[in-house]
Amino acid sequence: MNSEVKMNLAALYDRDYQLWLEQIVAQLKAQDFNNLDLDNLIEEIESLGKSDRRAISSYLLRLCEHLLKIKYWESERERCFRGWVLEINNFRSEIELILQDSPSLKPFLAENFPSAYRKATCVRVPVLRAHSEAINLEFATPFSVAQAREILSRAPGVKLVENWQANYFPMPIEASGQDEVLVGRIRQDLSNPNALELWLSGDQIRKGAALNAVQIAELLDTKDLVRPAIAAAVAQ
User: Fold this and answer.
1) At a CB cut-off of 8 Å and minimum separation 6, what does 147 contact?
2) Rounded distance, CA 126 to CA 197, Å?
3) Is residue 26 part of a domain?
4) Half-sphere exposure of 117 (CA within 13 A, CB side)
5) Under 8 Å between Cβ of 204 and 131
6) 105 and 176, same structural domain?
7) For the whole model, what pTM was predicted?
8) Is position 211 within any domain?
9) Which range of residues forms the domain containing residue 142?
10) Does residue 62 sit in the same domain as residue 144?
11) Residue 39 covered by a domain
12) What is d(CA 72, CA 167) in angstroms, rounded to the nearest whole number?
């Protein structure tokens, strides 16, 4: 008899979830533990914890996105500031509510922050040519934005493209057909005082493949590493 009840409940789970839930609650209240649909009940309990984790990850990602907008999107800040602040307060409140119910998820929040921050700075869009990347550079000690700009402005094969007032930074359409890698939007990593963020665009055909091969060959020749290698190969 018990096996028939369990089978009926298991079938009900797929057919009418709400009715299955009501019957499970009724069984628990009646302490009818022998006839519980344990397999599906365990799955549902496990999913409750997963749903809270997914919610925290989602709210944290959107929180990072809006904080970054306020910090860096100067051209839209005045027009959108109030709406962004409302969203930030909402995301924070939702995270706090989850943590009030489940304080044990606080370590998960801290562990998930670096991933959420990286995702908040990541986009994937179709372009005709040239690749772009958001780069995070971590150092052993604090490294200033001014130092980075000064070094990159003198680096061979690099072109500094950065105008915060005009909201003008490296773009793949402008990197196409160029030998230089365009670098800009250099800023402090909000989550790490020893790290910097930057944005770059480069032609993947020239700098990413053909030009790289030529430059490597030229460097090897300059250091007189090509001829000895060829001679050794011929001797074999």
Assistant:
1) none
2) 23
3) yes
4) 13
5) yes
6) no
7) 0.54
8) no
9) 131-204
10) no
11) yes
12) 10
